[in-house]
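seq as requested:
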Amino acid sequence: MEVEESGGDGDKTRIHSHLYWAVASVAQFGWAVASYRKGYTGDHRLMPLKAFAVASLFLGASASASVAFLKASGVHEVEDLMEVGASIRTGFGIRPRAGDK
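struct tokens:
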């Protein structure tokens, strides 16, 4: 946690949003693993629904982890992500794209 130093309410503590995304990712992944290990119990006609739900949990966990990683890295806008991409291309020695300045 970090106390915000810029004007306004200086006595409030601010929790970085990437922590929320990371907690959501861990929770979804844990729930997906628990559901996968439990296997299928119940009516056989609902098995595709359970398989879809478990796959959705794994996909959601990976998406939440990706957002947490981007926010923790300081990428908050699309422009920031484009700058990172341009930096990576420059590092590999690839010519800049026509739209890059």
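Confidence is low (pLDDT under 50) at residues 1-5.
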